[in-house]
Write a structure and sequence with these properties.
Elements: H1 2-19, H2 23-34, H3 39-45, H4 52-91, H5 110-124, E1 128-129, E2 135-136, H6 138-141, E3 173-174, H7 179-188, E4 193-202, E5 213-223, H8 228-243, E6 250-257, E7 260-271, E8 278-279, E9 284-294, H9 296-301, E10 310-317, H10 318-326, H11 339-345
Parallel strand pairs: 1-4
Antiparallel strand pairs: 2-3, 4-5, 5-10, 6-7, 7-8, 7-9, 9-10
Length: 359
């Protein structure tokens, strides 16, 4: 009778094990079969009331049943675990040939883009790029450029000076313009010279249109035949190419700079009707840069004979012309590292300026 009961129990439990659809159901079957209150355990507790021979036979049958159920449970558990893993892998499949998420598109800062536009224009005119250090000595930043000792640009309230290296020594200065690169070029290169100099500059000033650190670009041409007409033609062509207006009005007003003679301010035509600034034909003018013929004393300071050579120079603020071209009302966000501002005013990496493809 016991043997028949065990056979029925075995068949019933084996069917439940085989029919378990997940690990939780299989665990419940294991508890009902082999747990402390399970069916097999309860049969084991009845062995004490049997005759010795019957107890031995029933005990062996129960051990065989117990081992068979345990093996069947482990086998089914392995099958279910493998199926669960396969289902998870299928559900969480990652296509490694594609990005995990849409890659964010970086943007080129307007200053970098404007520099590239400047270099594209002047590169077509035959200018090459020159660079120099941000920290300069007094000679290259002031004296060689014919800036007198009493000039306001030399004062501490306008200029960032560094502590002297040794007591009583000369103080170095964060360059107030990129003109020292012109000096270094004229000292090291024989004319003819035709360079464009973009870079960072520093002045003690900060408001909506000024920053303690900003960017300038300057140009220098030195040879035996250069005159004011060449300077005017170069800058008129630049202004019209940069702003994309073929007949943009451009005028030159007499001015004064210590390092050029004669000197001029360059204005472009604009309109302020309706409270909005619009570059182009209009009743108003807007100053954008300074220029002039290189002062003979500057040539002399660089070891170039002013009786044989002459040249012209010009300079402008990169942030200023970027603000005018792209409608930026305030200089300060240029350095706020605000991604929202950069996404709005920035440029795609493939938007490389070119005189052929366009700026």
């Amino acid at each position: 009778m016991i043997m028949e009961d065990l056979e029925q129990l075995r068949n019933s439990l084996m069917d439940e094990i085989a029919g378990s659809g997940d690990l939780d159901t299989l665990e419940a079957v294991r508890v009902r079969a082999l747990g402390k209150k399970g069916a097999v355990t309860q049969h084991m507790k009845t062995l004490g009331g049997l005759e010795p021979d019957a107890r031995k036979a029933a005990g062996q049958a129960l051990n065989v049943l117990k081992d068979g159920l345990a093996a069947a449970i482990e086998s089914r558990k392995a099958d279910l675990a493998g199926a669960a893993l396969s289902a998870r892998l299928a559900r969480e499949t990652v296509d490694v040939t594609l990005p995990a998420r849409p890659a964010p598109v970086g943007h080129i800062h307007p200053i970098s883009q404007t520099m590239e536009e400047l270099l594209a224009i002047f590169g077509e005119m035959g200018f090459s790029v020159a660079e120099g250090p941000d920290i300069e000595d007094d000679f290259h930043n002031f004296t060689a450029l014919n800036i007198p000792e009493e000039h306001p640009a030399r004062q501490d309230h306008d200029t960032f000076y560094l502590p002297p290296v040794e007591e009583g020594g000369a103080r170095m200065v964060l360059r107030t313009h990129t003109s020292p690169v012109q000096i270094r070029t004229m000292q090291s290169v024989e004319p003819p010279i035709r360079i464009i100099v973009p870079g960072r500059t520093f002045r003690a000033d900060s408001d909506a249109t000024h920053s303690p650190m900003f960017h300038q670009v300057e140009g220098l041409v030195v040879d035996q035949a250069t005159h004011m007409g060449h300077l005017k033609g170069t800058l008129i062509d630049f202004c019209r190419a940069f702003f994309g207006i073929e007949d943009l009005p451009v005028r030159f007003r007499p001015s004064y700079f210590p390092f050029t003679e004669p000197s001029a301010e360059v204005d472009i035509g604009c309109s302020r009707e309706g409270g909005q600034l619009k570059i182009g034909h209009g009743k108003d003018w807007l100053e954008i840069l300074g220029c002039g013929m290189v002062h003979p004393k500057v040539l002399q300071n660089c070891g170039i004979d002013p009786a044989r050579y002459q040249g012209f120079a010009f300079g402008m603020g990169i942030e200023r012309i970027a603000m005018l071209k792209y409608g930026m009302p305030d200089l300060r966000p240029f350095y706020d590292s605000d991604l929202r501002w950069l996404r709005h005013y920035g440029f795609l990496p493939l938007d490389v300026p070119s005189m052929v493809r366009g700026l």
